[in-house]
Amino acid sequence: MSETNRAARAGDLLAVVSQSGPTVSFFDAASDRLLGTVETLAEPHELCFDPVHRLLWCTNAYYSGYYHANSGRRSELTVLDPDTRQIVAVVDLAPEHGPHGLSLDAQRGRMYVSVEGSAERTGGVVVLDTATRRPIGRIDTGADGPHWFVAAPDGTIGYASNKEAPFVSVVDLLDGTLLDRVEVPGSEGLAVSEDGSRVYVAGPYASIGGAKPSAASGIRVIDTKLRSVVEVLPTENVVVPVHLTSTGKLLAGQVRTGPGDGLGRQDPGLLTVFSAADHTELGRVEVGRCPLTITSSADGRLGYVSGVLDSTVDVIELDSLTRLARLEIPRRGEPGAHGLAYLPRARS
C-alpha cells in the first residue's frame, strides 16, 4: 500500500469477530496493527457500525456451535465503544433468539436484526431504536431461518435471505409487514445497490455437511421494482458473502470444498469481483478457507475477507487483486474469523 493510501486511512479501524474467541479485535486500518481485543458473550457472529452514536453492534447467535449445529440459541446483542474498546451494553431480545444479520438506517435511528423462528412464530426482523438501544418492533419474514438482512438506502424496504426457504423475504420497514417473496433456491449473503434498484443474493444455501446444492451456484440479481430475479451471475462454487463497494464493485466469496466434504475440508476460498454496472467479472484471487464475511474500506480501494476455517482476514487491493496482508485472528477452536466492520475515523 502506498504512503498516500496509508495516510488516507489514518485513524480508521477494522473490527473483526472471532466466533470461537469469543472476541472482537480492532486493527489500525492504515498499518494493519492489532490495537486490542474485547472478549464477548459466546458465539459472536456479525457486526454493524453506527457512525451517529459511534458504536459497534455485534450479534451473539448461539451458546456454542453454528447454524444447524449448536447447543442452543442466544438472544443477545453486544454493543461496543470502538474507541475505548469496551462493552457499553448487552441488549437482550428474549424471547427472540438466534440473532444474526444486522442493518442500520442511520437517518431514522433504526437497527434491524434478523432472528430465527420458533414453534410459536416464524423468523423475523427485530427493530431497535439506536438511541435507547431498545426493541420497538418486529416484522415477520415468513421463514424460519432468516440469516442476513439488508435495508434499502432510503430505509423503506428490507430484504432477508433465508437459507432453506426458497425465497428472499421483502418487508415494508415503515408498516412493519411482509410485502412479498422473491423466488430464490435458498440464499446466503445479500447486498443492495446504492440506488436501491437491485439486490444481489448469493444462492443456493451452502451446506457444509456435504449435501449437494439445490440449484446452480451464483449470484441472483433481483430487480426491486419487478421483485423478481432478472439475471444470474454464475460461479463455479457456492457463494456465501456478497458486498458492494463505494466504487461500484460487487465482491463475492466462493467456498471451495476439497476431498471428503464436511467442515474443515475446504480448499482456499475465492474472492471474485464483478462490475456492478454491467456485471462483467473483473477478476479473482485466493483467500482463506470458507469465506464468510466481506467488507471494504470507505474509499473502496481495499477489500477485507474473513476465512472462518483459517481464522484469518485477507486484505486485498481491489484494483490489482493482490493480497497486501493476512491478519491472524485469535481463536480457541473451530470456527474462527467471521463478522467484519470498517470504521472511518471520528470527524471533528
Automatic annotation (TrEMBL):
Taxonomic superkingdom: Bacteria
Name of this protein: YncE family protein
